[in-house]
Every structure is written in structure tokens, then in C-alpha cells.
Write a structure and sequence with these properties.
Layout (H helix, E strand, L loop, with lengths): L3 H6 L5 H25 L7 H14 L13
Helix pairs in contact: 2-3
Amino acid sequence: MLEANDILSDESLSKVQKVARLEELLAEARGLQRAATEGGMDPDDGVTRNLRDIELALDRLNAEKPETGAATL
């Protein structure tokens, strides 16, 4: 899976493109977290770390933050 830092460091992408890719990555990571929660997978498989990394990358770009919390899972 593509990492948030890979997107941030890709100088061929504009800020808008970076935000769009990070938001896609965030949606994918949330889906994996949801599947792990519902399917009884190991909660320490790195999904939470990936979510945090993506959110931090969006912060670095000063992107609007999507809602977070249980209701968004």
C-alpha cells in the first residue's frame, strides 16, 4: 500500500492532487480498520498507525479534515 510520506514527497503532484490521493488512502485505511474491527482481525496490524500517518500528512498540507470518530467508521 502506498504510504502517506510517499505522497507528500512526490514533487510531481500538486497540493490538490496530494490531498486527493491522501483522502483516497484515508478512505482505504478506514475500510481496512472497519474490516478488522468487524472481522476480529488483529487490531495491532498497523492500520491505526497508517490512519494517523495519513491524518498528519493532511495536516501538513493544511487540508480540511474529514470528520473522525466512530460514526465515520
